[in-house]
Amino acid sequence: MTDTSALSYTDDHEWLKIEGSSVTVGITDYAAEQLGDVVFVELPEVGDDVEAGTVVGEIESTKSVGELFAPVTGTVTAVNDAVVDDPALVNSSPFDDGWMLTIEAPELPEGLLDADAYAKLVSE
Amino acid sequence: MPDKNQTDSHAESPRPSPLHATHEKLGATFTDFAGWQMPVRYSSDLAEHKAVRASAGIFDISHMAEFTVTGTEAGEFLDVALAGRLSALKVGRAKYSLLLTETGGVIDDVIVYRLRDDEYLIISNAANRDAARSALQDRTQEFDVGVSDVSDDYALIAVQGPHAEKILSSTSGITDLTTPWDEQRYFAWASASFDGAPLLLARTGYTGEDGFELLVPAARATALWAAVSTAGDPYELVPAGLAARDSLRLEAGMPLYGHELSRDTKPAQAGLGRVVVTAKERFVGQRHVEPAADARVLVGLTSEGRRAGRAGYPVIAGDSEVGTVTSGILSPTLGHPIAMAFVDPTHSDPGTELDIDVRGKRIPATVTTLPFYSRKK
Question: Domain for residue B80, yes or no?
Fold first, then answer.
């Protein structure tokens, strides 16, 4: 189980697990709950260059369509094929089996939230 | 990852339902809907949807508005005020009807229950409560009739699914039925008591399954929900939210006001020509109720894969836009995407191959007749 207190967060309700210059990205349990049952996930391809703040994928639930934003600028080094095959992983395991992609990022953006700041954001 | 649930914005803070505390205890996720704070789901939209198809679900629909129409000319008044011939409705029965604008568009779609010779109950959409009440009241002028908005007095609970009758007939506290459970007909109502309070049971719904809608004084709603839930335990009754209600009605091909119906939509465009009794002497909207020959018509669209067209997405034939999706979803029951759309009549025949523009990608879709899903009778 991922220690969610050690993750970084964005105000787009994504989490980042930062290991050196390698950043693994997913959506938070709050985002998954707001979406409802996820039925379709589209991710970029390994090798794609992505720019922070741009849409790189889609997360579709029975009720609505959410966009997956790249939280950092860099190159996609891994995508989670399991979540494409079984989108329900986003709901059942948003911080672990439901991860989306890994980006090799030369530098981290400013304005990331820590777990406490993110908890405060969603409680408002 | 912003949430793009379609919710109605409302300046005032949303009203809680009389059942709010019950929903909180059940762990509901809430949404703002037409000025109300209502459960969108309790656990999983899909599980709630499937439970209603397979066993039963209990929904809080207390946001719906209720009006009573009372007076010796109530039937004659409704014949003029609504699209149907409600004077011919028998006491004990219910009918789906439409409140039209002078120009034949739809102000609201409603269910009308004849309570007595001189009294009707109208259940209307929450979002249209004010518009429907004013339209009805404006039309009373020449009639000996009164229209009262009694929405705040009542809670409305829907119990829907193949086990609904078994659950309600074993619910403790419901007594004094005017009609035995197994003799209650579809689109009919019966009255009863719930622990001494008046209870109206209507065999109506918005899911495509058998089921009932229970109108109870607001103060008794919590006790009734609890009693039905207890009786439902052996029958796998689950609480179900507005998300499941929407996906269920869409599979059943039922229109949702604001999506398939609007003031700019004529009933026949939405496949509701049968609801308009044109043979009546007069009714509001009569002169303009027929749509133009080239007006777009509502069709069903089915696709393969998992990506659903959503409200507002363009429908394409060749290089031209020939329609717009009004509602769409990956059908939980059928396993493929379904959508309702208004399309040009030249592209509305069942079997016509069209495309839906899903955020820049074209998804092939085939025109089909509605509904997508019918229960086995």
Answer: no
